[in-house]
Amino acid sequence: FRLAEALENAAFAGARDSAASLYKKLVDTDSEGRWGSLAGLRLGAIHLAQERQFLAYRTISLWGERHPYAVEDIRYRMSLAEASFLTNRFSRAVSLMNAMLPGELDTRSRRRFDAYRIRALVAMGEYGRATARLANFRANYHEPESGRIASVLACELYYVAGSPELADSYREMLKDTDGYEELVELFALQARLRRGGDKKTLDRLRKD
């Protein structure tokens, strides 16, 4: 386990893959033991970091089934909430995020999950709840980067909700901001497709 842990944090190419292999071996050989238990959750976290979302969801969910006494562990709930969101299990993601207490998360993690929750509510068509959460997001996070994230969230919300003029007003705030313009353009295109575009194109964009 200690070797896998060291590899997980190493910077050289292939280190995380090696760590995942060692964690998987521990899970397979000692699933009920202390080290196998610890390894299962770490394995799910690696899958998330490597953007293997569906594998991460399956791994983390299985860990919870095997260790029902530990499902209140915040690391488990954070990993499961993120994996649920990233695999489009939006209702479960929102439920898990709603159960998180502010004191359980550091500021960065709390901001990330607040953003996930807004996006999940938008995907569920819960525009009123998403709008209220967005207002809370703006009230709770004041640094410039959070302001840009709030504008991106507003663009997605209003494009999807059918208010493109309002979305465009937030989009204007993001002009010449690296990393955001392409994302907002994707939101705009997805919204247009939802309102009568080609279904095959929309499905391809969702996969991308």
What does this structure look like?
- The structure is a single chain.
- Helix 7 packs parallel to helix 9 and helix 9 (144-161) runs parallel beside helix 11.
- The chain has 208 residues and is an all-alpha fold.
- It is built from 12 helices and no strands.
- It has helices spanning 2-8, 15-29, 34-49, 53-66, 74-86, 90-98, 107-123, 127-140, 144-161, 164-172, 181-194, 199-207.
Briefly characterize the structure.
With 208 residues, the chain is mainly α. The protein is built from 12 helices and no strands.
List the SSEs and their pairings:
Blueprint (H helix, E strand, L loop, with lengths): L1 H7 L6 H15 L4 H16 L3 H14 L7 H13 L3 H9 L8 H17 L3 H14 L3 H18 L2 H9 L8 H14 L4 H9 L1
Helix pairs in contact: 1-2, 2-3, 3-4, 3-5, 4-5, 5-6, 6-7, 7-8, 7-9, 8-9, 9-10, 9-11, 11-12
Quick tags:
208 residues; mainly alpha; 12 helices; 75% helix
SS content category:
mainly alpha
Beta fraction: under 5%
- Estimate percent helicity: over 70%
Number of alpha- plus pi-helical segments: 12
Over the alpha carbons, how many angstroms does the gyration radius reach? 19 Å
The parts where pLDDT drops under 50 for at least 5 residues are none
Structural shape: elongated
Largest sheet: none
**Termini, distance in Å?**
35 Å
What's the rounded overall pLDDT mean? 81
Quick one: how many beta strands?
A: 0
Q: Sketch the topology as an H/E string, one letter per element.
A: HHHHHHHHHHHH
